């Protein structure tokens, strides 16, 4: 990446276990689905993940959050052994952990991502494997049922290994300790698209957490956008021309809009530990 100054800070990481942090207040939440870990699924096979794993996670998230509809649209399988390169297993690209602290979607980028699901999927969208040219969400359903609902983008992150995860754990910043200035907008420029996202600006007041020794029966919910979040409300007030795009208040505004997160290396962990293997599924959540 070019065009910005990268600085490294050492910060304490706090144990998120037994902290009772919630998705709407803090931007993250540790959960334990009631269904057993789906050991029968081949997590190196995109089709298996989309046809077997997506429905399990969508059903859990819909019930846990009390949502109207949950639409999984993407996933990433990562391995500590891949470092910054990609390895290929069973035809699927396995990426390395994302080691820069970031937020997945900018305030205008998330509604654009939602609306683009009514169009034929581009080649880079995972679900094109199953849908072909068929949109993920029919345009009529979006216009009549979903467009004006509160919506969020939520990631479900979990360890895939049999052993507790110690290599390159995920850390995340409690959103109640952030201000809007901590979200530094950057553009990722690809050959066919430009994506605006956030990098983390450092502030001593921030409080960063992780979940030590995560096991595969657990999951971590991360919120990467919420049209009822406080940053969405603030942006709508500052840019009234976009108010109907980013802000959909159906209830009182919630503190968390987009959690900053990334993978970190624990200096206490031996160099020869089993490399991390994890999966995150990204979902549109309509309330």
Question: Key features?
Answer:
287 residues, alpha+beta, five-stranded antiparallel beta sheet, four-stranded mixed beta sheet, 7 helices, 14 strands, globular
Describe how the helices and strands are arranged.
Layout (H helix, E strand, L loop, with lengths): L12 E3 L7 H4 L1 E4 L14 H20 L3 E11 L6 E4 L2 E4 L6 E2 L5 H8 L11 H4 L7 H8 L4 E9 L10 E4 L9 E7 L4 E7 L7 E3 L8 E8 L3 H9 L4 H4 L14 E3 L13 E10 L1
Parallel strand pairs: 1-11
Antiparallel strand pairs: 2-12, 3-14, 4-5, 6-10, 7-12, 7-14, 8-11, 8-13, 9-10
Describe, in plain words, how this protein is organized in 3D.
By secondary structure, the chain is an alpha+beta fold. 20% of the residues lie in helices and 28% in strands. It has seven helices and 14 strands. Strands 2-12-7-14-3 form a five-stranded antiparallel sheet. Strand 9 and strand 10 form a beta hairpin. The longest helix has 20 residues. The protein is globular, with a radius of gyration of 18 Å.
């Amino acid at each position: 990446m070019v065009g910005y100054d990268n600085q490294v800070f050492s910060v304490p990481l706090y144990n998120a276990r037994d902290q009772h942090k919630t998705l709407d207040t803090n931007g993250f939440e540790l959960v334990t689905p009631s269904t057993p870990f789906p050991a029968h699924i081949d997590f190196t096979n995109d089709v298996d993940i989309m046809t077997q794993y997506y429905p399990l996670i969508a059903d859990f998230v819909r019930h846990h959050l009390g949502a109207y509809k949950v639409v999984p649209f993407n996933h990433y399988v990562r391995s500590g052994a891949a470092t910054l390169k990609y390895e290929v297993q069973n035809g699927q690209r396995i990426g390395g952990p994302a080691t820069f602290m970031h937020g997945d979607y900018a305030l205008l980028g998330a509604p654009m991502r939602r609306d683009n699901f009514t169009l034929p999927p581009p080649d880079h969208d995972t679900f094109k494997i199953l849908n072909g040219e068929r949109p993920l969400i029919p345009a009529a359903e979006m216009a009549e049922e979903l467009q004006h609902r509160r919506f969020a983008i939520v990631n479900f992150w979990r360890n895939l290994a049999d052993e507790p995860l110690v290599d390159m754990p995920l850390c995340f910043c409690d959103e109640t300790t952030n201000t809007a200035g901590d979200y530094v907008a950057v553009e990722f420029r690809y050959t066919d698209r430009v994506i605006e996202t956030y990098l983390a600006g450092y502030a001593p007041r921030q409080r960063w957490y992780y979940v030590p020794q995560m096991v595969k029966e657990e999951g971590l919910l991360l919120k990467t956008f919420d049209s009822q979040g406080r940053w969405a409300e603030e942006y709508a007030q500052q840019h009234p021309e976009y108010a109907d795009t980013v802000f959909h208040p159906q209830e009182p505004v919630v503190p968390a809009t987009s959690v900053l997160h990334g993978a970190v290396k624990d200096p206490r962990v031996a160099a020869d530990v089993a490399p991390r293997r994890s999966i995150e599924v990204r979902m549109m959540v309509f309330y």
